[in-house]
């Protein structure tokens, strides 16, 4: 089956809305692992995890890389095919109940990454970035900001590809694992006003998130 990266199909949206499947895709980025290994890492029953892994494979989000015989059985190893992306058009056509489940799953995963980084000093390095920028926009401004973020995602992907090429040539010297989180959402009417606009987490720098 051809890999899917635009989840306009409700079946695909539901597949990604499950919190365990979101965690699996995150765990399999740039690595290969088996359900038994991931079950230990994620503290999940291996049978349940294997089921969700097979569903992701059937939908084209992960692929089987190798089979290894172990103690009379065969262990399967998977990797993520590509990060699934919800375009603005796809999001507009996604049912509300699926949107809610997708957001809950995504925020749970983001929260896990952010909390781990905070504990291990990930925000203490030079050029780490953390900004909350309250804005007042009209409809045109909202669309323009959304377009800017879409373009930024594409630019960041190109930077990552160029980095991987350089790292390969340098035998992965100075390799750094980084996570970039972008959000644009309509603020709750009850949300408190920000103390400052565009306040950076470190010395006022506004660069890439690491």
Give a topology summary:
Elements: H1 10-17, H2 19-27, H3 35-42, H4 46-58, E1 62-70, E2 73-80, H5 88-92, H6 96-119, H7 139-169
Antiparallel strand pairs: 1-2
Helix pairs in contact: 1-6, 2-6, 3-4
Notes on the protein architecture:
With about 210 residues, this protein is mainly alpha-helical. The chain has 2 domains: about 10-80, Orthogonal Bundle (Arc Repressor Mutant, subunit A), CATH 1.10.10.10; about 120-210, no CATH class. The protein has 7 helices and 2 strands, in the order ααααββααα. The protein has helices at about 10-15, 20-25, 35-40, 45-60, 90, 95-120, 140-170; strands at about 60-70, 75-80. It has a two-stranded antiparallel sheet. Residues about 195-210 have low confidence and may be disordered.
Labels describing this entry:
2 domains, Arc Repressor Mutant, subunit A, mainly alpha, disordered C terminus, two-stranded antiparallel sheet, 210 residues
Number of domains: 2
| Main sheet characteristics | 2 strands, antiparallel
Low-confidence stretches: 193-210
- The proportion of residues forming helix, as a percent range, comes to 40-55%
Strand residue content:
5-15%
Distance between the termini: 35 Å
N-to-C SSE series? HHHHEEHHH
Write a concise synopsis of the structure shown.
The protein is mainly α and 210 residues long. It has 2 domains: 10-80, Arc Repressor Mutant, subunit A (Orthogonal Bundle); 121-210, no CATH class. It has 7 helices and 2 strands, in the order ααααββααα.
């Amino acid at each position: 089956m051809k890999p899917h990266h635009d989840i306009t199909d409700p079946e695909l949206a539901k597949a990604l809305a499950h919190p365990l499947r979101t965690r699996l895709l995150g765990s399999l980025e740039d690595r290969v692992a088996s359900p038994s290994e991931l079950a230990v890492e994620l503290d999940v029953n291996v049978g349940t995890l294997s089921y969700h892994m097979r569903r992701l494979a059937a939908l084209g989000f992960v692929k089987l890389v190798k089979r290894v015989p172990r103690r009379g059985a065969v262990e399967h190893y998977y990797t993520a095919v590509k990060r699934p992306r919800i375009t603005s058009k796809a999001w507009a056509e996604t049912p509300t109940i699926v949107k809610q489940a997708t957001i809950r799953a995504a925020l749970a995963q983001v929260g896990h990454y952010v909390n781990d980084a905070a504990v291990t000093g990930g925000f203490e390095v030079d050029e780490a970035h953390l900004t909350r920028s309250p804005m007042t926009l009209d409809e045109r401004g909202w669309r323009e900001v959304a377009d800017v973020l879409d373009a930024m995602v594409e630019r960041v992907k190109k930077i990552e590809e160029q980095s991987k090429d350089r790292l390969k040539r340098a035998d992965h010297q100075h390799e750094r694992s980084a996570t970039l989180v972008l959000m644009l959402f309509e603020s709750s009417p009850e949300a408190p006003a920000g103390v400052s606009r565009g306040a950076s987490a470190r010395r006022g720098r506004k660069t890439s998130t690491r």
